[in-house]
């Protein structure tokens, strides 16, 4: 999805990127990119063990631990 962003400036002059689909905004381009996945439904981060897909890499890593941890499980 191409992001037609509204880029504003806050009171201190820093750039604020506005989501074109909802009120979410962020100073960081990467956070807005990750947020946009909630609208597109894209899940670009697959678990290397089971293939389950996640929107955020950190969530995939936390999930992947369930495959190698003696206490973990994947359902």
TrEMBL record:
In alphabetical order, the GO MF annotations are: DNA binding; DNA-binding transcription factor activity, RNA polymerase II-specific; zinc ion binding
Subcellular localization, as worded in the UniProt entry: Nucleus
* PROSITE patterns for the chain: ZINC_FINGER_C2H2_1 (PS00028), ZINC_FINGER_C2H2_2 (PS50157)
Fetch the Gene3D superfamilies from UniProt.
Answer: Classic Zinc Finger (3.30.160.60)
Q: In its keyword annotation, does this UniProt entry include Metal-binding? A: yes
The record, for Pfam families, names:
zf-C2H2
- Keywords for the protein's UniProt record, in alphabetical order: DNA-binding, Metal-binding, Nucleus, Repeat, Transcription, Transcription regulation, Zinc, Zinc-finger
- All residue ranges annotated as the C2H2-type domain in the record: 17-44, 45-67
**Gene Ontology cellular component list:** nucleus
InterPro entries according to UniProt: Znf_C2H2_sf, Znf_C2H2_type
Chief location of this protein? nucleus
Q: What is this protein called?
A: C2H2-type domain-containing protein
């Amino acid at each position: 999805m191409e992001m037609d962003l509204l880029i504003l400036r806050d009171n201190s002059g820093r750039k604020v990127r506005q989501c074109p689909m909802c009120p979410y905004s962020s100073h960081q381009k990467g956070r807005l990119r990750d947020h946009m996945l909630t609208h597109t439904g894209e899940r670009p981060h697959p678990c290397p063990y089971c293939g389950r897909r996640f929107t955020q890499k950190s969530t995939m890593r936390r999930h992947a631990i369930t495959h190698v941890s003696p206490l973990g499980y994947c359902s």
